[in-house]
Amino acid sequence: MHRSTMKMHYSTLLGLFILFSALSSSYAGKVLVVPADGSHWINMKILIVELHAKGHNITVVRGSSSWYITEQSPLYTSITVDTGAFDDDFMEKFLPHLLKMQRQGRSFWNEIALVDEVYRKFTEFHQQICNMTAAMFENETLMNSLKDTAYDLVLTDPAFGGGVLLAHRLGLPLVFNVRWTVYGEEHFDIAPSPLSYIPVIGLQLTDKMTFSQRVMNVLAYIMILYKHSKYFGSPYQEFSQKYFGPNVDFFSLLQNADIWLMRNDFIFEFPRPTMPNVVYMGGFQCKPAKPLPDELEKFVQSSGEHGVIIMTLGTVFGQLLSEINDEVAAAFAQLPQKVIWRHTGPRPANLGNNTLIVDWIPQNDMLGHPQTKLFVAHGGTNGVQEAIYHGVPIVGLPLAFDQPDNLSRMQAKGTAKIVDIATLDRTVFLDALKEVLHNPSYKENMQRLSKLHHDQPMKPLDRAVFWIEFVMRNRGAPHLRTQSFRMSWIEYHSVDVILTLMVTLLIFAFVTAYIMRYFCMVLFRKKVKRE
Ligand SMILES: *[C@@H]1O[C@H](CO)[C@@H](O)[C@H](O)[C@H]1NC(C)=O
Ligand SMILES: *[C@@H]1O[C@H](CO)[C@@H](O)[C@H](O)[C@H]1NC(C)=O
Ligand SMILES: *[C@@H]1O[C@H](CO)[C@@H](O)[C@H](O)[C@H]1NC(C)=O
Ligand SMILES: *[C@@H]1O[C@H](CO)[C@@H](O)[C@H](O)[C@H]1NC(C)=O
Ligand SMILES: *[C@@H]1O[C@H](CO)[C@@H](O)[C@H](O)[C@H]1NC(C)=O
């Protein structure tokens, strides 16, 4: 009796195993990943880890001067493309320079100079990507081997355009892991985006704008459109015309992507129109908290009823401005809470005995700890999402890029208080900390967002992987793609139709007026004759 049940178990198990391996092998695909370097790689890697775990074979294209993407990895095979000599002084020189300029005050001209500086630097990056892609296209051995491998899809971060170009050349379905494209915020490239209630990134506006804010929003939009296509888009445009023919428009190639896995969602974003091939995966990087290392746990427990504050400004920004760090430390020293501060570089003056400086913290596990009361963040990759996931309110110190907008969204939802880096001193910072600690609405609002985030049928990462596999199984997702990518601006906005209708109406009105005038005159003449 027992034995036969055992046997049955074995055969069921065996059957399941065979079924499982058949399923997983039929799903195993080949993915060509063209990532963006720098902090964007962190997010791409999360998808790669998950795809690898599902048994897919992954190839990553990297530049020879890559900062983050290693050549050897158990997760993927890499293709290294020579990027030539390129001074990657971005981290060492450019960012500190950017911060200094901000600290000099927020004048109009300063702002313009700042933006200009960023644009020049990024234009260089885009040109370098085009050079790198050209090196690939002109290497016949490489192109042939890529073709022979018969990948199922290209997965890319369209903040840079190399992946879009490569997918078109190889004729492969295209999946985006996206927050930014070459042209700006992702949605603006494919979804209808009425500027009356959709703020462009960079102005820290919300979806409730006054008249003057709407004017600013439209002007900023036009400027972004112009600058991004002139400085960022044009190298790719030239490239497309050179390699694909004079009628090929890079922007259309980009819009033509099969699936857009967006790294945000409507817990973070203001509600807006979207598209059938957009998949929101905001918070895909978040995980439940694991227990802390013993020492950290001891420190956290010693905080008692007051709880702990966590501060991290990311790897790069953390060590930049010692005068700011000194003020921050002085403010922390006046609080009863314990503080864990991720900080490298010179030790700040004014450090209180409640503050622990560490050079690394398990950020996600810390945010998930029940003693954690407050998160001091710069609004960079993952910080805001992890704070939402664990329901921890924020004091924001935005520094550059889209960080101010990320935090202003949180402020608009009543979950964060922003401190301007240009005016930061110990009193301003302390007031902000106290407000978020003592006014319960911040925590309540954040916990409401957290609840909303967790209340969905499928985890964001599972959703993302489902859609990548969907594209493998169905060779793309053209049935979800609108035809907008075929259209010029004039067609898209029906400007041609409106003009035609207006001209027709005008002609009709003229003709009617002319005929009426004619009859009036005839009648009038008759009258005159009779009299
Ligand atoms: C994955 O693909 C690469 C390149 O095509 C190949 O060299 C490698 O053997 C493959 N790995 C597996 C586990 O199939
Ligand atoms: C790209 O290549 C062109 C021509 O080979 C060269 O002049 C330019 O300096 C390169 N740009 C970058 C950013 O590497
Ligand atoms: C072309 O690509 C192959 C394979 O990746 C590489 O071994 C070779 O060095 C490349 N040739 C040139 C000229 O870059
Ligand atoms: C920390 O500093 C405060 C005030 O400066 C002092 O009252 C307290 O005893 C100190 N605590 C420890 C553990 O040194
Ligand atoms: C801003 O938030 C988005 C969405 O969470 C994230 O993808 C992006 O990386 C953040 N910005 C920066 C500069 O890290």
TrEMBL record:
Q: Which CDD domains has this protein been placed in? A: GT1_Gtf-like (cd03784)
Task: Tell where it localizes.
Answer: Membrane
Annotated membrane-spanning segments are: 497-520
Q: Which SUPFAM superfamilies match?
A: UDP-Glycosyltransferase/glycogen phosphorylase
The reaction(s) catalysed by this protein are: glucuronate acceptor + UDP-alpha-D-glucuronate = acceptor beta-D-glucuronoside + UDP + H(+)
A GO molecular function assigned to this protein is: glucuronosyltransferase activity
Q: Which UniProt keywords apply?
A: Glycosyltransferase, Membrane, Signal, Transferase, Transmembrane, Transmembrane helix
State the annotated membrane topology for this chain: Single-pass membrane protein
Pfam families for the chain: UDPGT
The UniProt record lists the EC number as: 2.4.1.17
Q: Which InterPro entries match?
A: UDP-glycosyltransferase, UDP_glucos_trans, UDP_glycos_trans_CS
Q: Where is the signal peptide?
A: 1-28
Annotated Gene Ontology cellular component terms: membrane
Name the family the entry cites.
Answer: Belongs to the UDP-glycosyltransferase family.
Q: What is this protein called in UniProt?
A: UDP-glucuronosyltransferase
